[in-house]
Amino acid sequence: MKSWGNRTNFFQDVSASMSSDKLESTEQIAPVLTEDLAHWLGQLTLLYGLPVEYMVPDVRLLPVESIRFFYIDRNWLDRLVDGAMSVGVLSSKDNVFNQAFFRDIYQQVDAAQLNLRNKIRAAQLADVKATGGTMTGLLFRSQVVTAYPGVEIHPYDENQNPLTILRMDRLSNSLIFCIFDGIPTQVDFIQPSEGLHFGITRIDTHAFSLQIRGLGYPTDDPQPKGYPAGVQIEGHPGKEDYLSVSGNILANASEGVIDIAGLVNNINTKMNGLTPPALLNGTLTSGGLAIQFTVGSGVQSYKLKLEDGSPPEACAYNPA
Description:
The chain has eight helices and twelve strands. The chain is α+β, with helices and mostly antiparallel strands.
């Protein structure tokens, strides 16, 4: 006998009933994904295996020496999971099951997503307390990727707290792809740490400049440790205008021989002229001079800053 009921509506009614019973029941009847399946679906939601052409359909959207920041729509990721799981739907029973428990499955996939990179790197797994947060990321196409295969990327939120990197991969010799858990207001690109060395910045044949770095003095300054040791001193805090001194290269000596006495005198004058002074007893020691010659890994920061001075919250993404 032909059913008078709509089969699709019937499945939805059964699914709603199962979901309601599940929520009201004191027993945990939600399905638990196997570790391998959760790991595979987590990879899928982090776009592993997705062709670059699907993310950047036209090469003109990502020209050489460019960076593109983006949000990821979790609704789209959920549909991606639905598509993957539809392979196992062989009957109306399977369909009802998926409709009843899809939220539990999404939550488990999101939890696996947060620890996927730690598993790949054999690092300690994080304690996942919340899932389903905003996901963002970037595509960086530059010769920097080619020149520095070990370039470091550090994202921070509006409170300068580091964000979790869910994925960071080189898609080609000049293209890096990253996904973050949260919304960054600052992303730092740092040269590999092994780039630390001693050096100067040549101005011309007979002159050079040297960035001034703190030595940890004065210790009684209200700010912790005064001028932090090894950190470049800013002329105006927050303006990123770092102090430097000039030095001379001796004209009648072998190429590259510098006037150390004149350089030390210039550094003493500059550091003692700060408020408060940055030297102990007003004299630069040999160790302090070595710190001044330190050339750290280069840092390029990208910061969220609106032209009208609005706070970063004004750019918050609302997926709803």
